[in-house]
Amino acid sequence: MSKRFVKVYPRFERLWHWTQALLIAVLMFTGLRVSGVHELIPFGPAVMLHTLSALTLLVVWIFATFWLFTTGTWRQFLPKVEGMLATARYYAYGIFKGEEPPYQKQMLRKHNPLQAATYFGLKWVVFPAIWVSGIIYLTYNFWDSGADSTFVLEVVRNIHLLAAYVIFAFVIVHVYLLTTGHGFREHVKPMVTGYDCIELTPEQEAYLESNEPGRLKPVAPAE
Amino acid sequence: MHASRNTTAFARLAYSLAFGLTASVAFAQEVIPPVPGEGSTADHSKFEILQQEFKSGPEVTAACLSCHTEADDQVMHSIHFQWEFDNPVTGQTLGKSKVINAFCGNVVGNEPRCTSCHAGYGWDDMHSAPPQQSTAVDCLVCHDQSGQYAKLSTGAGHPPLGDVPGEPVKGQTITGADAWAVDLMKSAQSVGMPTRENCGQCHFYGGGGDNVKHGDLSSALYDPDIHTDVHMSKDGANMVCSDCHTEESHNWAGSRYLMDAKDTIGTGEPGEHRFSASCESCHSDSPHEGDLMAIKLNDHVDKVACQTCHIPEFARGGVATKTYWDWSTAGRLNAEGQPIAEHNFTQSDGQELHTYLTIKGDFEWGENVEPYYAWFNGAVDYTLPEEEIDPTQVVEINKVLGTPDGEDSRIWPFKRMVGRQSYDAGYNKLAYSHVWGPTTDTAFWTNYDWGKAIEAGMKAAGSPYSGEYGFIDTYMYWPITHMVAPADEAMDCAECHAEDGRLVGLAGVVMPGTNPNSIVGRLGQLLVLLSALGVVGHGLLRLLSRGKGGTH
C-alpha cells in the first residue's frame, strides 16, 4: 500500500460540480427572494433568473446522469451500512480528540459511508422532489384544470419549498465539513485540480502506472 | 393591433418612397386633388333636407329618418334608450330606470333632471316607457361633429335652444357648463361616427360631475396624455370609444351589468367582427410576446384580468373621482339659513372641489386611486329597491359575482364607492328620494327636508313606505377598465407578490412572495437554523479541543 496523487475527479465531474454549485447558489438566492424571505433584487428578475438557472441545471443534470451511468460512477453513491457507525462516532466524538478519521478515500470509493448515505438521500429523494415539484410548478398552465388545481399547486409549492430548505441545510453542512480533517483548502483542491491523495493497493498502483499513467502524479515528495 | 398599424404605416412609407417619388418626379407639375369624403361616402351638408332651420331636436331626427329608415327602431331597442337591462345570469331587471345607486339615488321622481342624459327627447315620466314616437330618438347627441350640440341639464334630453345660435341661454348643459343656443342645422350637417366628445358628455359626467361615478371615465379622456390612457392618447393609438365598444344595430358591446370578464375567444377568426369590448378581442388571450417573462405573464391571464396589472390606479390624468358620499349630513344651513358649500379638496390642476354641499352632504375625493380587487365573473347582482337589507351591516348596493378560483372568474380591479344613504327604517329597504323639483315643496334640494323628500320619492316610485327613515353605510362597485397605462407603466410584480401586496386576503390563488413564513417555510427555516447552529457548535468544540492531538 502506498499513497499516491491520483486523478479522482475527471474534468467533466469537476465542471459538473462547480456549475451545479454556482447554479444552486443562484437558485437558493433567487428562490428565497421569490418566496419573500429577502428583497435584495426585484421579484420579476428573480423569477426569471430562478427559471433560467433551473433549466440550465436540468440540462447539466441530464449530462451528469448520462455520465454517471455510462462510466459506472453511480456506484460511488450507493450507501453502505458498514462503517457508518464508526464514521458517525468519529464526527460526534473522535474528531474532538484529534483522532484520525476511520475512513480513507479509496480509488473506487470517494465517499465515506455517511457521505454516501447523504448523497444517496439527496439524489434519490430531495433532488427528485425539487425537480419534479419545480417542473410541475413551472408548467402549471399546461395542467391547470380549475379550482382543484390551485390546491394541487399549493401542495407542489410546499414540497418544492421544503426540498429547497433541505438542500440549503445540506449546503451548510457540506461547506462546513470541508473545514474538517486536512482543512478547507486541502478539501477543495481536488475538486479544482482533480488530484487527491489516495491509498492505492500495489495492484492498483501497478495498473495505473502501466495503463493510465496520466491519472498518476509522479512520486514526488508528498507534501 | 400596433403591429398591424405599424405594418400599414411602413407599407405606406415604402409605397410613397417607391412610387410617390417616381410619380412626383415624373409629374411634378400635376396637382392630385384629395379624395373627398373622409371616412364616408356622404357629405351631409349637401343634403337638402338638412339645409333648413330646425326648431327642435325631434325635427332633426325626422330628417335623419327620411334616409336612415331603421335607425330609430334600432336605437329604441338599445339600453341607451330603454334604460332597462334584463340580466340573464341573475334574472334581475336592471338599468337606470330600475336601480338605486350610491350617488344621486333614483331617477323616478327626479325627471326631467336625470333624463337629461337620455338618448332621446322628452322622457319626463319614469312611470311610462320612454316616448315611442320615432322622432323621440336623439341622433345628434351621438353623431354631431360640429362640437356645439349639447343637452340641457333639466330638459329631459332636449338641447338648449334660442333665437341666436351660439348665444348664451338660461340653464346649464349636462356637463355643468352654462348653456348656449344650439345651432341644429349646423349640427345636422356635421354628422359622423361618434367620437369621444359624443360619448363623453354623458359618460364622463355621470353622478353629477366630472368623473364623479366611474373613476376611470373623465374629461381627461378627451385628450389624454399617453400615461393616462395609452389607447385614447393622440401619442398612443388615438382610439375612440367605439373602437373597443363595437356596435351591432345601434347596440354596443360592453356593459358593467354583465361584462366579458374572462374572454377566452380572443381575437376570433381572421377578419371576424367580435361583439365584445374585452382587451382580448384585440390583444388575444396570450398578449405578451417575446421572452421567458412574456410566457410567465401570459400564465397569469387565466386568473388575473388584464386591467388588474395594466390600470395600476384610476382617476389619473388630473381629474379626481368621488370616493365617499354621505347623504346623511345634507341639509345643514348657515346662521342666515342659507345653504353651505365647502371646498376642501384641491385637485392636481389646482381646482377646488366641494367637500360639503347642503344639497348633497359630505364628500371625499381621490386622484390616482389604488383599486379594490375582487374575483369577478362579469355579472353584477344589485340590491334592488324592493329587497330587504340589514341596516346593521354595510349594504352592498351591487355585488360583483364570481368565486375565488372560479373557472369563469378572474381578479378584477374596482372602484369601491363608500356611501351613506337613506333607507326605509320600518321596512328595511333602500329608500327612493325626491331630490330635484324646483317647484315642489317636497324636493330635498329645494326644501332640505329628508322626511318629505323620501315620502315623495317612495310615492313617486309607488313603493310602500313605513314612514320612518334612517341612513345606512353602503358600498358600490365600479369595474375599472379604462385608463390603461402604457406597457412599461404596468404594475410591478412586487405590487402583489409581497407580504403587504395588493391582493392580500384574496382567496383561491397561489401567490409566491406573499407568505415567506408559512408553516412549511418556517419548518424549512428551522432546519437551516439548526444546521447552522450544529456546525457552529461542532466547530467551536473542535476549536476548544484543539491541541489534544493534531487535526492531522
Automatic annotation (TrEMBL), chain A:
Keywords: Cell membrane, Electron transport, Heme, Iron, Membrane, Metal-binding, Transmembrane, Transmembrane helix, Transport. The keyword Cytoplasm does not apply. The chain crosses the membrane at residues 21-41, 47-70, 116-139, 159-179. Residues 8-194 form the Cytochrome b561 bacterial/Ni-hydrogenase domain. Pfam families: Ni_hydr_CYTB. Its main location: membrane. It is a multi-pass membrane protein. It comes from Celeribacter ethanolicus. The keyword Lipoprotein does not apply. PANTHER family: NI/FE-HYDROGENASE 1 B-TYPE CYTOCHROME SUBUNIT (PTHR30485), NI_FE-HYDROGENASE 1 B-TYPE CYTOCHROME SUBUNIT-RELATED (PTHR30485:SF0). This is Cytochrome B. Belongs to the HupC/HyaC/HydC family. GO terms for biological process: respiratory electron transport chain. GO terms for molecular function: electron transfer activity; heme binding; iron ion binding. Coiled coil: none annotated. It comes from the Bacteria. It is found in: Cell membrane. GO terms for cellular component: plasma membrane.
